[in-house]
Amino acid sequence: MNVTVRLPGALRDIAGAEPAVGFEVPDGATVGDLLDALAADLPAVERRIRDERGVLRPHVNVFVGPSNVRDLALLATPLVPGAEVFILPAVSGG
Q1: pLDDT digit of tens for each residue in the chain (94 aa)?
Q2: How much is the pTM?
Q3: For the chain, domain boundaries
Q4: Which option is the CATH number for 2-89: 1.10.10.10, 3.10.20.30, 3.30.70.1520, 3.40.190.10?
Q5: What separation, in Å, do the N-terminal and C-terminal C-alpha atoms of the chain show?
Q6: Angle at Cα 47 formed by Cα 64 and Cα 93, nearest 5°?
Q7: Lower CB density within 10 Å: C or N end of the chain?
C-alpha cells in the first residue's frame, strides 16, 4: 500500500527531500514499519525522529491524518492505504 510522509522544512533541509515522500509498505504496516522504510531511504531524517532505541523522540510529533500517534498506539499505530503521515518537531520558545 502507498503511504505519504509529509516533512516540515527543517527535516527536508537535512536530507534534501521533497515536502512529501511516498512509501510503499506492506498491507497491515504500522507507523514503526513506515519509519523503518524512512530510515532506509532518509537515515538523516529518521535519526531526528527516533532515538537509538527506536523510540520516538519527545520533541517530535507524528500524526496519521489528524490523530497524534501518542494518543493512539504510538509506533504500533496501523496505517491504511493512502494514509498521510505528518512528522512535526515540537515548537517552543519564549
Answers
A1: 999 999 998 888 887 878 999 999 999 999 999 999 999 999 989 999 999 999 999 999 999 999 999 999 999 999 999 999 999 987 766 5
A2: 0.92
A3: 2-89
A4: 3.10.20.30
A5: 42
A6: 75
A7: C
